[in-house]
Automatic annotation (TrEMBL):
This is Putative acetyltransferase. Belongs to the acetyltransferase Eis family. Residues 1-154 form the N-acetyltransferase domain. Acetyl-CoA binds at residues 83-85, 91-96, 119-120. It comes from Streptomyces nymphaeiformis. Keywords: Acyltransferase, Transferase.
Length: 413
C-alpha cells in the first residue's frame, strides 16, 4: 500500500472515492463549482491510500483553519476531514497508515494542534484525539416560550419588560441577500469565542458547508446595535410541520442572543422552536418563564482536539490561574512520551521537559480533551483515564485548565 499526496487534478477521483467509502453519491456542484461542501477541499492537503494496483482505496484531507484558544489567542490548526476507506479494504491498517502520515505532515508544517468532527466516537481516540467541545439541541414549544423578566432587574428599579427592551433592532433578510453580513458577524464572534474555528472567505464565496454558508434557502434574523452595526444573527427555516429550526445563533454578547431568541420564540404560525447548537450551561433555559419548556435533546461532543507538540500547545493558550503541574504525557500512536513541567504565572505558561515526579499521568487524547477548558481533568481522573499522583493535583489541574468562557464550536467541516 502507498500513501501519496493529492493535487487539484485528483479532486474528482478524491470526491468519488470518499463518497463510495460512505455509500453516498456526491451532489452536483453549481456552474461555478460551488454550493457543495467538498468544493472547499484544499487538495494540496489531501492524501490517497493506494492499493497495489494503484487504485485509491482511502482518503483523508485537512483544512487550514484558525482556532481560538482560551485568552482569545488565534492559532493555525489543521481541520481533518473526508476520512474514508472503501468497504473492500477495511481492517487492513489503511486508516492507521493515513492517520499516521497525516499527523506527521501536519506536525512538519508547524501545526501543534489538529482537530476534527468524529463521525463515530470510537474511531479517533486511538489516534490521539479527544472530545473537547460539546453542544446540544434545545427544543421549546411555542405556547410555552415566554421569557421571564430578569429578577436581578428589581435592584435597578425596572418594573416591567419594557424597561429591559433591547436598544438594537432585528431585521429579517434572505440568506442570499446578507452573505457579507454573516461573514463579518461570524468572524468577530469566532475571534472571541474559545473553541471556535475560522470560516475562510473562500468557504463563503463557494457556499461550501452547511447553512447558513450553504446556498439552501434560509431566513436570517440580523441583529443591529443602537448604531445600526450588525452584531448577531440567527439563521432559520420553518418546516411544513410548523417547526422553526435555528441552524445557528451568533451573538456578540448575551443581550444580543436574548434578543434573537425572543424574535424566533415569538414567531407566528409556529408550534415549536428548535435551537440546533446551544452550548451546555447556556442561560436560555433559565430565561424561560417555564423552565421545563426548554427540553435538551441530543447532547453530544463536537470538536475533537489532538496535540502534536505538547509544549507548543500549552504555552500558546491563555490561563486564568497560577500554579505548577508536572504532566507525564503518553502518545502511543506516534510513539512518544514526555514529562513536562507546566508553570503558569500571570496568564502565561512555560512548559519544559523535566525529570521531576509527575502530578498527573495521562494519554495525549485526554490532554486534548482538557486543553480548551471544556472537560475538567478531575472528571477524567474519576473516570480512571488520568492518574493523579498526589492529593490536590486534580483540583489544581481543574483550576489551571478552566477558561474564562466555556469552549464552543459551531463550524461544521
Amino acid at each position: 500500500m502507498e500513501i501519496r499526496p493529492t493535487t487539484e487534478q485528483d479532486r474528482g477521483l478524491f470526491v468519488d472515492t470518499m463518497h463510495t467509502a460512505f455509500g453516498l453519491f456526491p451532489d452536483t456542484p453549481a456552474e461555478d463549482g460551488g454550493g457543495v461542501w467538498w468544493s472547499a477541499l484544499e487538495m494540496d492537503r489531501g492524501l490517497f491510500a493506494l492499493a497495489d494496483d494503484g487504485r485509491p482505496v482511502g482518503t483523508t484531507a485537512s483544512y487550514s483553519f484558525e482556532l481560538t484558544l482560551p485568552g482569545e489567542v488565534l492559532v493555525p490548526v489543521g481541520g481533518v476531514t473526508a476520512v474514508g476507506v472503501l468497504p473492500s479494504h477495511r481492517r487492513r491498517g489503511v486508516l492507521s497508515a493515513m492517520m499516521r502520515r497525516q499527523l506527521t505532515e501536519l506536525r512538519a508544517r508547524g501545526d501543534f494542534l489538529s482537530v476534527l468532527l468524529a463521525s463515530e466516537a470510537t474511531i479517533y481516540g486511538r489516534f490521539g484525539y479527544g472530545p473537547a467541545t460539546y453542544t446540544q439541541r434545545l427544543t421549546v414549544p411555542r405556547r410555552r416560550a415566554a421569557l421571564a423578566l430578569p429578577r436581578a432587574l428589581g435592584t435597578t428599579g425596572a418594573t416591567d419588560a419594557t424597561d429591559t427592551a433591547d436598544a438594537g433592532s432585528v431585521e429579517v433578510l434572505r440568506r442570499a441577500d446578507c452573505a457579507e453580513v454573516l461573514e463579518e458577524v461570524y468572524d468577530r464572534y469566532r475571534r472571541a469565542q474559545p473553541g471556535a474555528l475560522s470560516r475562510p472567505h473562500r468557504w463563503w464565496g463557494l457556499r461550501a458547508g452547511q447553512p447558513p454558508i450553504a446556498p439552501a434557502a434560509r431566513y436570517v434574523a440580523v441583529h443591529r446595535d443602537a448604531d445600526g452595526i450588525p452584531d448577531g444573527y440567527a439563521s432559520y427555516t420553518v418546516g411544513d410541520d410548523r417547526t422553526l429550526t435555528v441552524d445557528e445563533t451568533i451573538a456578540g454578547d448575551d443581550a444580543v442572543f436574548t434578543a434573537l431568541a425572543r424574535f424566533v420564540l415569538e414567531h407566528d404560525l409556529v408550534e415549536k422552536v428548535v435551537f440546533k447548537h446551544v452550548p451546555p450551561g447556556h442561560p436560555l433555559r433559565w430565561q424561560l418563564a417555564d423552565f421545563r419548556a426548554g427540553e435538551v435533546v441530543n447532547p453530544t461532543d463536537w470538536l475533537w482536539v489532538r496535540l502534536l507538540d505538547v509544549p507548543g500547545a500549552l504555552t500558546a493558550r491563555g490561563w486564568s490561574a497560577d500554579g505548577e503541574l508536572v504532566l507525564d504525557v503518553d502518545d502511543p500512536f506516534l510513539g512518544g512520551r514526555g514529562r513536562y513541567l507546566l508553570t503558569v504565572r500571570g496568564g502565561k505558561a512555560e512548559c519544559v521537559p523535566t525529570d521531576r515526579e509527575p502530578d498527573l499521568s495521562l494519554d495525549v487524547r485526554d490532554l486534548g480533551s482538557v486543553y480548551l477548558g471544556g472537560t475538567a481533568p478531575s472528571t477524567l481522573v474519576r473516570a480512571g483515564h488520568v492518574r493523579a499522583h498526589r492529593p490536590g493535583a486534580a483540583a489544581l489541574a481543574d483550576a489551571l485548565f478552566r477558561g474564562e468562557r466555556a469552549p464552543h464550536c459551531l463550524h461544521w467541516f
